[in-house]
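DUF3027 domain-containing protein, pasting as requested.
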Amino acid sequence: MITTARPKPDSAAVAAVDVARAALVAEVDPADVGDHLGHVVEGERVVTHLFACARSGYVGWQWSVTVARASRAKEVTVDEVVLVPGEGAIVAPAWVPYRERIKPGDLSPGDLLPVDDDDPRLVPTYSFGDDPLDADDKAQVRAVAKDLGLGRVRTLSVEGRDLAAQRWYDGDGGPESQLARSAPDQCTTCGFLMRIAGPLAETFGVCANGDANDDGRIVSLDHGCGAHSEVRLAKRHEPQPLPEPVFDTITPDELESL
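Structure tokens follow.
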């Protein structure tokens, strides 16, 4: 086991609280500097002093002033003055690229969302050449696909298909949605289910019930809703028949006299 020896605190650097504070107030408003919170030994003869930040809007942040002492020198020098977040500081969330933040429904009319050439969800419809990702080969793929009338330069890969299937199954059209959990039966026995072709046919179909929430959407076969084709109301829930009409004994002549 390899152990790393911790550097010994340099007494001169540790004691240089006033030097660190003087360097700090020379850079920022003295009213923004709070109490000395302690120090951190960064290395041999290198110490960082921490001061509370009293600036409005920076609750939990700390002023960090790093000082160092050269070998055989009596005085310390200031290396840097920075503002750093403490444990309770409010900081911006981790950056997430825009492409990864897009959710279904975010696109507006006229918006464009290009797909990378090396997107793992897609593969060339017609593979050509040793390296289909080479720029020249991609141009040839497009030309060949167009000549053959395939219509699509790229098609869904196995990975892309599996990602879509998992997303659909875990979504509102899957078996764990609140609608499905309270359903009387599953879509696999519903007359409104339209079967699809291809490798996903054993798991998914399309709802064709215009009264259902999922009309026109992909649903798993073990999904369900209250608009199932075989749903029947209990007698106590059925509409009550209207009573027999009352026999009208008023004649037209009597009606006119009224």
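Note for the archive: The helical segments are 11-14, 17-25, 98-101, 135-148, 158-170, 178-181, 252-257.
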